[in-house]
Amino acid sequence: MELNYTAEDPIAFPFKMVSGEVQQHMLGWNIPAEHQSLVHEHWRQFPAVDKFSHYLLALIYFILMISSITGNSLVIWIFSTSKSLRSASNMFIVNLAIFDLTMMLEMPHLIVNSFYQRMLGDQIGCDIYSVFGALSGIGGSITNAVIAYDRYKTISCPIDGRINKVQASILIAITWMWAMPFTLLPWTRVWGQFTTEGFLTTCSFDFLSEDQDTKAFVACIFCWSYVIPMTLICTFYSKLFVAVRHHEKMLKEQAKKMNVKSLASNKEDAGKSVEIRIAKVAFTIFFLFVCSWTPYGVVAMIGAFGDRSLLTPVVTMIPAVFCKTVSCIDPWVYAINHPRFRAELERRVPWMGVREPDPDATSTNASTSTTPADA
Fold this sequence. Notes:
By secondary structure, this protein is mostly helical. It has helices at 51-81, 88-104, 107-116, 122-156, 165-179, 181-187, 212-258, 266-305, 313-337, 339-348, 359-365, and strands spanning 15-18, 21-24, 194-197, 202-205.
């Protein structure tokens, strides 16, 4: 029996039967005629993605969504309600978790789109999907820069360099304002636009149009959301490591002159160790940020200025998955490495099996005496 599937069917099929032979559709075949502008000509040269690839993508996004919601909700809950964690520095961690959760708001849309194999809601659906992605992505990148700045100030100037809650609130407001321009400009079509990418079930800013206006937009958003935050992060962490090494060298030289092992008391050492561990956590998240957003930045720059033949639907979707993955990993990095967060997890959710000694108790109970150097 001959089967024929059309775009009007509730579930799209990438194949149809014509004269007893299988004819493969090309990407964009099931997009309504009035919304064909959502499909760039570059994608029309590729065969329609098979439904099993769509289902696999939906499964990956579903796993990422559950992981992110669970982890980031724990971060927000514990950091917001624990007195020992309610500090100015940890306000930035909560802010990052909120941005990560914002990214999850687009995932249910993608999962449904995968079963229909097109963007539901057409241009409006595409814009809503992209707004969540742009806001969370740009906001998360600049928040990583703020966290790096906070770690640098806290560790290099522990007495008078700590950021207070008023300053933290101002910096958090700046992260949201930083994310707004390149979220609102393409949404309102003032500069740039949002359009479908890869499998045509997700949307992002347009980096394939060949006009100079689009090229200028891509170059600016690349600098704004990637180059500037990356430069700030590298600068602050570099200064932090230099300050720590200089401080340790100074203490060793002075201790040598006084014929003692260390000038710092055990209590101070324990407190410093906690701060260093937190800095390592922040640096790990920065490393994840680099790994997740660098491929996406490279794809965008290739689309605007390079060889577009390299950009197949699968190639462009892999960086998109990386971007979503980092928002799921961030909270679990804290669960693994942040000492006070682990202590709170052990106390509040013991079924997770976390084991962490209370860092405050460790600092308090430590001996503060110095020990003479060995002869």
